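Shape matters. As here.
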Amino acid sequence: MKYAGELAALGTAVCWAIGANLFTAAGRRMGAVMLNRHRLLVGALVLATVLWITHGAPWPVWATKSQIALLAASGLIGFAIGDTFFFRALVILGAGRAVLMAALAPLLTAAIGWPVLGERLGPMALLGMALTIGGVVWVLMEQQTHEHASRHGRLATGVMAGVLAAFGQAIGYVLSKMALRTGLDPLSANVVRISAGALAIWSYAGLRGQIGATLGAIRDRGTAAFMLGGTTFGPVLGVWLSLAALAHIEAGVAASIIAINPVLTLVISSRFHGEPFTLRSLLGALMAIAGVVVLFLR
């Protein structure tokens, strides 16, 4: 199918934008750390069930040891470590600036993918990436969170956490791409990746004696509904589509298209959470969309 990779990446951005708003509602009730644990566990169970239905087994026994190793490392770095740093940045910097730091991920993905994957991007691809990331950055720089940062930690700590989160996502993408290049399908890859992340983060919770408290955080039905909805659109559909995108197009291009996710998130938030959507936000969104069009037509 023509533009399969680009459409999958765009679908990823839409799913993550919807999931982020559902996770916002759930996170306000149970807290970010508890939410991350539940979303990974539920995501792993749902994806394993889908794999069982479609492939006849809940675990990809057909995957090689090297594929599993690469994807497990991707899940550990991307989900368990990267997301932990992202949530730390979220607490210190606030949503706007934390997502701004996450916008560094496409550039880092392209930088790492060049020597590791041998993916050399042409002038049009670089222009599309610049427009997309520039639009996202321009929108998110409008968010003012200095006071929020001073109450919850040092600004430098939040910025460092954001950079490390972006590196975690970029390294996770590149490792996933290396596994997908060997022929493993995206669904099987996603099961391994999210299972590794869930295992790591729940093992850490067990070592800290927080299993009971984590399970107790999901008792409220409304919280559970928001968490399940966010998990469906985020770690399940969103990550599945992101791996499908990686299977068809360059890692840097995929990450750049997905980078419009924060702008889409702001649009949805303005409707459902009452957050302001200004003229600058609209112009930034149009700039990011122009970058996506360039990436489609490169």
Observations:
- Residues 145-150 have pLDDT under 50 and may be disordered.
- The chain has one domain: 4-297.
- The radius of gyration is 18 Å.
